[in-house]
Design a protein that fits this description.
Blueprint (H helix, E strand, L loop, with lengths): L5 E11 L6 E9 L4 E7 L1 H11 L10 E2 L5 H11 L3 H7 L6 H11 L1
Parallel strand pairs: 3-4
Antiparallel strand pairs: 1-2, 2-3
């Protein structure tokens, strides 16, 4: 049996500080078997800047897909790599939310 393939990746809800190399967003990943995944993604530069501004020394919680750029071609390449192993897509799948919301909520709790 052939594993499902990525048929579409949409980069949505983007927050960019200085272009695609300093950004966060949500990747909606659609597979050929009909499954859909929602992945929180960020560049390391955006994550470092946001955690510094929030005064966070650490973060744990939902998995974050780190990309060197939030450009659509990079996002699709990462999604295709994750789709090689269903467990990885499931690990990164999150309820519809954004990383800024998640980090601000994390700060309130800690």
């Amino acid at each position: 049996m052939t594993p499902p393939r990525v048929v579409k990746v949409e980069v949505i809800e983007v927050e960019s500080l200085e272009g695609p190399r300093n950004a966060t967003g949500v990747l909606d990943v659609y597979l050929s078997d009909g499954r859909e995944f929602s992945l929180m993604a960020a560049t390391p530069a955006w994550f470092e800047d946001k955690t510094r501004r929030l005064g966070l020394d650490f973060y744990y919680g939902h998995s974050i897909l780190f990309l060197n750029s939030l450009k659509p071609d990079v996002a699709k390449k990462a999604a295709k790599e994750l789709a090689k192993n269903d467990a990885m897509l499931c690990r990164y799948d999150t309820p519809r939310t954004t990383l800024p919301r998640v980090l601000e909520e994390f700060k309130r709790r800690h």
